[in-house]
Specification:
The complex is a heterotrimer of chains A (about 550), B (about 100) and C (about 220).
Chain A lengths: L1 H5 L16 H5 L4 H29 L10 H37 L7 H23 L13 H5 L4 H28 L12 H33 L12 H35 L6 H14 L15 H29 L8 H24 L1 H7 L3 H31 L5 H27 L14 H31 L57
Helix pairs in contact in A: 3-4, 3-5, 3-16, 4-5, 4-7, 4-8, 4-9, 4-14, 5-7, 7-8, 8-9, 8-10, 9-11, 9-12, 9-14, 10-11, 11-12, 12-14, 12-15, 14-15, 15-16
Chain B lengths: L7 H23 L5 H21 L7 H27 L6
Chain C lengths: L2 E2 L2 E2 L5 H36 L1 H8 L4 H26 L3 H31 L14 H40 L9 H25 L5
Antiparallel strand pairs in C: 1-2
Classes of the chains: A mainly alpha (about 550), B mainly alpha (about 100), C mainly alpha (about 220).
């Protein structure tokens, strides 16, 4: 091991990609790594579909009168942007791609507990995605990604039914992925891999799985009821027939608020891995971090009605939920504190994943703190349904989840592909993404705060400067998304050979070849070290902290 | 995970109890007890469901982890029902 | 994913495989609880808004058929439990017998359900254009809410029964081949868990739908 860490390694002859050939070997694979690649391709597809809608929205908002599309089309654009991005990119992105690829590797297992169910999850995702695309193409969707009734169930003239069915089916993909992860983490750990030796990435996926398992079924029911209401003219959520639209919102947000944590928790896991790797230090407050992950999963379920402060719910319930909302900030703040503390006196290097991690911490901080504005009952009434909300959740979802995804993709690209990406271009690209992102969304905080509502296809002329700024930023943002596609694809052929453990890092996934063989490990590994124990791992070829000259 | 084999006698006893309580729940519904009717109905249903979970589904003899999963499931169901009802039931408190 | 005998290659021991399967099934049942939970919540809110109409509409349901079905389902749960017992103690003939009995009782339940649904069609109690209910437009709409929930909840339950019947059919076929032994009976155990869960849903549906107000 010592020798291999210092000598340049050869590319493995046999690995999971060339283990079998032909389209059949991919479409019928049960290898978690191959399924992860299937997901990688499909979520990237949905990301760019959603991205096109976003681009059209930003171009439309260049002028106050909005000449590009009709008001109806504008409604469809932001709806389809939301649906594509949330249900088909953000929710599956990190768990289904990185989680799928890494969880068995990180805990020393040969595969997930239920490999065939894992493949089924991907097919459900594709069927759901296909139905949603069908809805986009056959009239579009204009209900908002939240499908509020009775607009979605009675009044909308767009293709609601196939979209609802698609998201319903996709929900089962998410449920089964969560179930698979949870059972795998419980039952498939290698000898010696105790709960508190697991990487934080696995812990955050454990917490994410809990949300997927307990939340997703509820949104499935909700959408099924709304869909039946639309098809058979029933009245569960239709006030004209005695139903209650607020009930729909309760049921919808019972899942869709925790869904935010489905997007952000895995990203937090990625960031923990990146920071320990590039600060060459154990994660500060490891056990507190695990507790914080679980706390986010649990407390995340107690705050959903803060989306409904102005929807007519009881003031007393709103007060209680506003208070509970403040509680979620605590574990999130603990995590941010621990990441910074991990870097303190570490030997920090500024590789691409680390740049994304820095971006994550800063943007998540802004996103989280502006969330407190929105969770506070009085302030929310002022900024509810303004661009401020749009800016807030993009800071969490793009600044948080997407930066985490990009950082993770770069950190584990050598493991996935066996090749290094070009470091310099990648760093520039990360910086471009950060700049573009802030330029796009920071102005939206300002325009929202001074009164520009969200989801309007037109706006008063005084908001134009801010909107132009935002659109200009979006063009830069687009470059930051497109460039990695090119250099990552380029690196598959031309990148330097990565070797087992290029950074180096402590996880089990770095002990096997890059790319790993189909069965992951030649021999089932036995874990004898604690998580992130950089100091007592001579096999990594690192100097001990004491010898590195730290006081 | 060693399997616990529940005896046939216990199964028969539980089955009979479930049938008896089905009868009781019907007769309880024929008596007018005001709001207590629904409380009694749900209490009996929960008692019956607990018997099924504990004995037919072996939860009583299952590993801790399985028991935790069951408790978590019902806890989250209670969260969903209870916290939503907390909105509906406090709406009438407002004087405006 | 190769397998030797009953053990899939990615598991180290049969114990690990059984543990994973059992935990997986329980977690799946938890998702089912939440799935039904959403409908139960819809029911609770609607009933609390229109208690009188719900009571009136509930009296339209056939409590005898509902009661018989409850007994049938409890009996099927008992036979299923006995099937698990037979598989654990290696009584292969009894296993097949109890599985078939469970399947028959499940089919009886679905048969009774069919006649109940047919009756509702005859009485114009199916939500839609031909829905009829005494009273003004409001009470008609609210009664229709009750029947939408009735068909939604019992329909979803019946769907689960049909899936369960399919699983039982598969178990019968495999048990005839003598596949289940005291060492390997996980499928019987897991289908059992599922079947009992479906029974539990009905234990709640019966008083909530049929017995709102019977005095």
């Amino acid at each position: 091991m010592n020798a291999t860490a210092t000598k340049p390694e050869a590319f493995p002859e046999k690995h999971y990609v060339n283990a079998e050939y032909g389209i059949r070997s991919w479409l019928l694979t049960t290898d978690h790594k191959r399924i992860a690649l299937l997901y990688l391709v499909s979520v990237t597809g949905f990301f760019f579909i959603g991205g096109i809608f976003a681009a059209l929205i930003r171009i439309h908002l260049l002028t106050p009168a909005g000449y590009l599309v009709t008001p109806e089309t504008y409604n469809k654009l932001f709806t389809m942007h939301g649906v594509a991005m949330i249900f088909f990119f953000l929710i599956p992105a990190i768990p289904a791609v990185l989680g799928n690829f890494l969880i068995p590797l990180m805990i020393g297992a040969k595969d997930l507990a239920f490999p065939r169910i894992n493949l089924l999850s991907w097919y459900l995702y594709m069927i759901g995605g296909g139905l949603v695309l069908f809805s986009f193409l056959s009239g579009g969707l204009d209900t908002g990604w939240t499908f509020y009734t009775p607009l979605s169930s009675v009044y909308s003239n767009s293709a609601v039914a196939p979209a609802v069915l698609g998201i319903f089916i996709n929900g089962f993909s998410s449920i089964l992925t969560g179930l698979n992860f949870l059972v795998t983490i419980h039952t498939m750990r290698a000898p010696g891999m105790t709960w508190f030796r697991m990487p934080m990435f696995v812990w955050t996926h454990y917490a994410t799985s809990i949300i997927m398992i307990l939340g997703t079924p509820v949104v499935a029911t909700t959408l099924a009821l709304a869909g039946m209401e639309r098809l058979f003219h029933l009245g569960f959520f239709n006030p004209a027939l005695g139903g209650d639209p607020v009930l729909f919102q309760h049921l919808f947000w019972f899942y869709s608020h925790p869904a935010v944590y489905i997007m952000i928790l895995p990203a937090m896991g990625v960031i923990s891995e990146i920071i320990t790797t590039f600060a060459r230090k154990p994660l500060f407050g490891y056990k507190v971090m695990t507790a914080a992950s679980l706390a986010i999963a649990v407390v995340g379920f107690l705050v959903w009605t803060h989306h409904m402060f102005v929807a007519g719910q009881s003031t007393y319930a709103a007060l209680a939920f506003s208070l509970l909302t403040m509680l979620v900030a605590v574990p999130s703040a603990v995590k941010t504190f621990n990441w910074t503390a991990t870097m303190y006196k570490g030997s920090v290097s500024y590789d691409t994943p680390m740049l994304y991690a820095f971006g994550f911490i800063g943007l998540f901080l802004i996103g989280g703190l502006t969330g407190l504005f929105l969770g506070t009952l009085g302030t929310d009434i002022h900024i509810h349904d303004t661009m401020f909300v749009v800016a807030h959740f993009h800071y969490i979802m793009v600044g948080g989840a997407v930066f985490g995804y990009m950082g993770g993709l770069h950190l584990w690209w050598p493991k996935i592909s066996g090749r290094m990406y070009p470091e310099f271009v990648a760093r520039i690209s990360a910086i471009v993404l950060f700049v573009g992102f802030n330029m796009t969304f920071f102005p939206q905080f300002v325009m929202g705060y001074i009164g520009m509502p969200r989801r309007y296809h037109t706006y008063p002329p005084e908001f134009q400067v801010l909107n132009v700024l935002s659109t200009a930023g979006a063009s830069i943002l687009a470059i930051g998304y497109i460039v990695p596609i090119f250099y990552l694809l380029w690196s598959i052929r031309h990148g330097a050979i990565a070797g087992r453990n290029p950074w180096p890092s402590t996880g089990l996934e770095w002990q096997t070849a890059s790319p790993p063989p189909t069965e992951n490990f030649a021999v089932t590994p036995e874990v004898t070290w604690e998580a992130y124990d950089f100091d007592n791992r001579p096999d990594l070829g690192l100097a001990r902290a004491a010898d590195r000259g730290h006081k | 995970m060693s399997e616990h084999i529940v005896s046939r006698g216990i199964y028969a006893g539980i089955g009979a109890t479930l049938l008896i309580f089905t009868g009781i729940t019907y007769y309880a519904a024929t008596v007018d007890l005001g709001p207590l009717n629904v409380v009694i109905a749900l209490t009996i249903a929960t008692f019956k469901a607990s018997l099924v979970v504990l004995y037919f589904m072996h939860a009583r003899y299952s590993p801790r982890r399985t028991q935790l999963v069951i408790v978590a499931g019902f806890f989250w169901l209670a969260l969903l029902l209870g916290m939503t009802l907390s909105d509906y039931l406090t709406r009438a408190w407002q004087s405006i | 994913m190769h397998r030797t005998g009953e053990l899939y290659g990615h598991f180290k021991t049969p114990g690990q495989q059984r543990e994973a399967a059992s935990l997986g099934m329980w977690v799946f049942l938890i998702t089912e609880i939440m799935f039904f939970g959403g409908i139960f919540l819809t029911y609770a809110i609607n009933r609390s808004m229109y208690p009188d109409i719900f009571a009136e509409a509930s009296r339209e349901l056939n409590v005898r058929m509902g009661g018989i079905n409850t007994a049938v389902l409890i009996a099927s749960s008992f036979t299923m439990a006995m099937a698990v017992w037979a598989s654990q103690t290696g009584k292969k003939k009894q296993l097949t017998l109890f599985l078939i009995l469970t399947l028959i009782l499940g089919s009886v339940f679905l048969g009774v359900k069919y006649f109940e649904y047919a009756e509702k069609f005859h009485h114009h109690l199916v939500p839609g254009r031909n829905f009829q209910f005494p009273g003004d437009v409001g009470s008609r709409a609210h009664a229709q809410l009750f029947f939408s929930l009735y068909f939604g909840m019992t329909g979803l339950h019946a769907l689960h029964m049909i899936v369960g019947a399919g699983l039982l059919l598969w178990l019968v076929k495999e048990s005839l081949r003598g596949r289940y032994t005291p060492q390997y009976n996980t499928p019987v155990e897991l289908v059992g868990l599922y079947w009992h869960f479906v029974d539990i849903i009905w234990i709640y549906l019966f008083p909530l739908l049929y017995l709102i107000d019977r005095h």
